[in-house]
Amino acid sequence: MPKASGGKQRLSKKAYEAKLPALREQLVQLQVKLKDSPFKIVLIIAGVEGGGRGESINTLSGWLDPRGVETFSFHQATDEERERPLMWRFWRSLPTVGRIGIYAGSWYTETLREEAESAKTGPDLELGLRRIRHFEKLLSDNGTLIIKVWLHLTKEQQRDRLRELGADEDTAWRVSESDWHANRIYDRLARTAGHIIKETHRRGAPWTIVDAQDERARNLTIATLLLQRFREHERARTRLQSSGRAVTATTPLRPSGRRRLLALPLDQHLAEPEYEEKREKWLGRLNRLVREASSAKRSVVFVFEGWDAAGKGGAIRRLASAIDARDYRVIPVAKPTDEEKSHHYLWRFWRHVPRAGLVTIYDRSWYGRVLVERLEGFARPDEWKRAFREINDFEQQLTEHGIIVVKFWMQISRDEQLRRFRAREATRYKLHKINDEDWRNRRKWSAYEVAVGDMLALTNNAFAPWHLIPSNNKRHARLQILKLACQQLTTALET
Amino acid sequence: MPKASGGKQRLSKKAYEAKLPALREQLVQLQVKLKDSPFKIVLIIAGVEGGGRGESINTLSGWLDPRGVETFSFHQATDEERERPLMWRFWRSLPTVGRIGIYAGSWYTETLREEAESAKTGPDLELGLRRIRHFEKLLSDNGTLIIKVWLHLTKEQQRDRLRELGADEDTAWRVSESDWHANRIYDRLARTAGHIIKETHRRGAPWTIVDAQDERARNLTIATLLLQRFREHERARTRLQSSGRAVTATTPLRPSGRRRLLALPLDQHLAEPEYEEKREKWLGRLNRLVREASSAKRSVVFVFEGWDAAGKGGAIRRLASAIDARDYRVIPVAKPTDEEKSHHYLWRFWRHVPRAGLVTIYDRSWYGRVLVERLEGFARPDEWKRAFREINDFEQQLTEHGIIVVKFWMQISRDEQLRRFRAREATRYKLHKINDEDWRNRRKWSAYEVAVGDMLALTNNAFAPWHLIPSNNKRHARLQILKLACQQLTTALET
Questions:
Q1: Of the candidates B57, B65, B326, which has its C-beta nearest A73's C-beta?
Q2: Which label site among A482, B51, B74, B124 has the fewest CB atoms less than 10 Å from its CB?
Q3: Number of domains in chain B
């Protein structure tokens, strides 16, 4: 852990004020530059009680242009937050690119507080720390500059500080019984904090321990750290951008996925009357299962992926017809909005994670990252390769929260696609469903097969398995989807 | 109230099914057209218990492409919703243009339920209805197609329907004690509903009473209504677009505002030491007042408007320095994002309405509608003229909810602006603060004076008055702002 200098010897008011004008000027310059940069800054100020988290944030905010800064502190989760996975509230707080988010405590607050109250036991703590590591890695990999400051005081310094604050009538309100409690259990908290810091001190998201004894030195240290890390980040980004792009998107990473895809028999037959009878049966069953999930406050996320014209729309329609319209929402995934583009690619999906007991149906999904973005070059090789892990982690967070994640890949043959494209072109009211891009994608069929194969192989987890749906026959495909949805829901509700 | 036909005589299953294919085809066509239209559809299905709101929504959803539809039903408000004005939850639910929002009950549900529970007394009900009228007028004025359906059953029909549902084991769960209660107090509810319907049956948002006795006829009637209203709406829009635009944006609507603006003395003097001493006093006072407001769960909204280079940024900085950084948020208002553009212009401001006890500082605001949008022609004359009332209504909703709305107009002379522009150009690190657009706006100074004057005259309400700040002298301006903020907060906290 790097310890930033400052604080050892007291900084005189005069020396402090002499440094301020240049420092503030540099901070303004930083913000002007940042505004046009393709990344954001996440600055976390954590540390011991009495270390002056609030004051240093206020001082720093005063030095910065408040129009480019947002400050967050997380107290009690709201009910909307409690009904979603832990990290949802942090995702939704993230600033857009070009801006600074200052976090008072942040994801660390709750983790440490729960430990202090012994509400979080060992394994829970480790899980929480893993979540944090993944979250910060994901942000940092995406270009976010993460700066984490831990304000440090010794037990005696903390005691003196609390006394000092308590003695002044202007600040006495800021010292609570829980602050004194923190001082009494200082050693235990310090051990836990040390553990947390050690476990989350990673490249891209390192901690800096700042001596909080001298307020002026502390403020200067934080501001200087911000300036210095920003400069380093800019330099590193420039190097990164000029580095190679030689990896080809069409080489399989894990050929077994593509083999599984190609081995799928596609030409089933199903007569209309048999289809209708069975459909009614499965729709009824699905309706009951979704209601059962809902009363158990379990949400369901359906993911539909597949070739153009594989029949996603029709299948979603049939599936949705089993659910009360007030309980589900279909999210059609097209081009991201400019607000969405200004965030990590998963942000737009986190946004729509359903409240407890509700259903979200994604018509295309986050898998666009490893399909179209991989093949069209919208994502760099390091980005789409990283995405497999990020996606697995995302889905794991959903399922750990009790959300049931049901994923379908609708597979048709290349010939069948051609037939359907032509039929669309021949039917006036289906013409809107086909455009040049569809034909363009079709020409890249075998490249897509590689990408789909990798996706199937690398994101096929027990907690969120892929269902491959042979879809040359629409009736058969729809029935399969209903059946597999019922099976997965049944299994999930038993656990 | 128009009563839609259907329901008087039973519709046979055969006759019903014969009509479906053509109807569904038309609905799909509607959605394809809507997707490229610059408006949205809000379809409200309300009515008596047992009238089949849920079923008809489910049927209609099954006929539509679910990717272009969102269905909403509003139960208990979440805590995030309760901490904001009543209409906030409805604002945030609105679909974007090109989409259909289907509302089960919607803003009517709560109003009617509270009346039934006698929780809402006469004046409250009237206020609620006024809110609804304003909300629907605002949406409809903005081009939204609003369709409101009231599903009607007589007392006897309702009783029979509840019995029927209760007798079938598949549907028995849908009949609750409160449904039977509704049947017992049918007459009273019908009177209230009649009143609500009458008071909210307006051009742009008319009710259609649909006989809910025969389910099949009911479903057909709703779908037909949707198709017919969509066609009418398309025709009306075409007429509207081709109508005149002759009104000039630079003629004052209410000259008194401009006179007030021009009469403002601008050249005050304030020495540095006197400024610093007074500033500290007012900052301290403001800090206490904001904390007091916060512990009373009162939010504060600050609005900063003024000429380019009038000193908004600096003033916001000083003001913000009095508030704990974790309790305020500055919203810099620049060009809307594409998601924001796809909504009513007030949507992006509703979005940021603070939770109870927090502070939002808008750096420019919704007043852009009657300033830049008026003068640059981004809004049509009917649009910016309407905006005065919409804005007053918006601010009234905030203040009625207990939010304190503090508005500043920072006024400088044209010469002073020139001096500041030149100074910016001469200072390297201020160069980013000046661009061609600033110079362009400056050339329209007298036109802007007209628009500012109208704004000051037409949106200067007792609940949210305008503070005019002479700002040629920056120190004087900042002090005035702190002082007036304190005064308004003090007054507001006493009431």
A1: B326
A2: B124
A3: 2
